[in-house]
Amino acid sequence: MKIVVLALGLFLVSSTAQAQWLHQSEDDAFENKTQHISMTMSGMYALGYVCQGNKSRFVYITPEKYSAELSQTMLVLNPKLLVRVDDADVVKLDVFSEEANNKTKLVTDDEGSVSLAKAVAVAKKRVSVAIEIGGQLFHKTNFGVTGSKEALNKALDGCKAQKSN
What we know:
Mean pLDDT: 86
Shape: globular
């Protein structure tokens, strides 16, 4: 839910010409850990990095209406989140789908999330994202990188500190 609220806030303050990365952290009273969220928007799409302790993931929210049938179909088809930072090679991450305010949210728990977050933090031009299902690309979007270094480094540093505790 926090991700959706942050995405809605970004939507109100961002434009498609220049997306702004934002960071938010929130303490978890039950696990004594802080969840860090760094997120940006482009049009009706949102991309975020979420970490808490040693768990990290990327989240991609699309405008596509969520349904249980879509989620089951995607699970069978083994979708991938494709991410290209600037002009670097494409990174492919395994994803599963969830509901986010009646929209489709794709989530990865891939170990590549931390290294990808570090690459996005130093991006100069853009972060391009798409979903690959059955060899076809869907929901291709470009995100700006303004503020990505500060927002992502706060999350990476915050979660790194939790790992050492």
